[in-house]
Predict the structure of ATP-grasp domain-containing protein.
Amino acid sequence: MLGGGESNERDVSAASAAAVIEALRASGHNVTAIDPATWPAPARFSAQVGRNAPSEAEGARLAAAFRANLRDEAFWRAVDGEVIFLALHGGMGESGELKAELESRGLVGTGASAAVMARSWDKQDTVAELAAAQVRVPRRLRPETDENGELSWPEPTAGCIVKPALDGSSINVFKCATADEIAVAVKEIDGPVLVEELLPGPEFTVGVVGSRVLPPVLIEPGEGWFGYEQKYQAGRSREICPAPIDDVLRDELVELARRSVDVLGFGAESYARVDIMLDAAGRPCVLEVNSLPGLTGTSLLPLAARAAGWDFPRLCAEIVRLATA
């Protein structure tokens, strides 16, 4: 089990790892817990997700240690198991970098291929590839360059969302009403940025495990929107599965999720979660596709799996089975 890691989602990764370890051990698996950002120290995974991401300095320290371990053959001898379960959300774990190293060493890791992880991790690549395949996505806002070489953003007609192209768990996501607010938000984000029209919703998510599409989940975020705390602090949001929607919309969400993972190249060995929101006309739009969705006590994929008749140990066992099939 590889969990924790160096990304802004470190606490989420640790909580996923803790939950999966308990489930797999209860099913009779022998599981060794390793945090690639702190190895060779013993991994300490907690099921409790903290309220904040690591500081910038802490993230840099963890990233340096992670990269050093990837170059250390002693580290690879420690992780040489029959199956490497990846519970590393964000960063090197979800960008495809770690999976590429596993593939180059002939090691079996859970989830999608390195190439698919890389495509789905970069939200700019994801929405461009989906749009090219006629999958509906939110309209993007793009800046123009004025006579002084400065970027000038258009005024959004109904608000917009500014978010990092290379991050997850709704970290560093801004809701903006004016072009000036967009400019400020963009400066707050380190790295590539995605600016999209604000959709009224509601929001849904649809899990896909292998070839099986799970029942859609309706997300009711409570106060504000479905941000980091709403996702991982119990009681901050309400998620309903199966979603109380008519058959027409349910079928449309299921087909949209299936189409999205097919376009991005997810294979039978993988699992994913497709986040979808309705636009002002009530049409579903794909926000993003997660190649290593959360497996914590408040995560949405386990909720959808339960609605499909799988308890959490069964879901974890299925993820392992897909990797080895």
